[in-house]
Sequence to fold (271 residues):
Amino acid sequence: MDHMGSEDFQVIDNCLMIRLPEEIDHHQAGFISETADRHLLRKEVCHVVFDFENTRFMDSSGIGIIMGRYRKISCFGGKVYAIHADRQIQRILKVSGLNKIVEVLES
Amino acid sequence: MRNEMEIIFDAVSDNESFARVAVAAFVSHLNPTLEELADIKTAVSEAVTNSIIHGYENLYGYGRTDGGQQEQRNVPTGKVQIRCVLEKDLLHIFVTDRGKGMEDVEKAMEPLFTTKPELERSGMGFAFMEAFMDDLEVISTPGQGTEVRMSKRLGVEEQIGSEA
Fold:
């Protein structure tokens, strides 16, 4: 399985872009959340963009990651976006109700 | 046709992907749709993750990382068992652990309920199992462990498609 590195977290303007791994489960969730939070603290980041381009699998651990980041930035008016989500990822977002707080951008 | 398989593995998060891929591979000769495979993998992943972090409370791998370099530690762990029974196109999955079990299964199954909010567990695990499988049953005894029984009929869409 692929592992994420710091190059998967980029700040562009006021957005934190997170390129997610091929599989998102509890095993990698800690690293993603912690690294994202370090960026959220250090930089002038308002919004978070989750890029699902490489992602083929996600379970409820991914929901936890997204919900956690949403809680941290929404009180400052930040938004959470999901891009390149395939049908399966979109289903997961829908079943969990996350599509109500995450803006899923069609590409 | 009846077919059965059983795997037992250490309750560590590294094995979550192995577990779901193993179950997916077991049913692959039925030519399941991508969606069915994804459903099964998600449900297995949820059940196995529950066993690891709730049953055995093995939190290694979660929120204990150091810049992505997870140090190798020897954590004494329990085992998770997965048994799959295939009866024609009906797949039964049993995920069993001998962990701490649950006092109140109904409460645990409520969407968004989690005993580990500090770990950002979303509380959606059982809801996902319910949504992605046809049938879900959870049997748990405090101090003895938990068994999750799930089943799903495969190839339903495909049959409709080929008859048309």
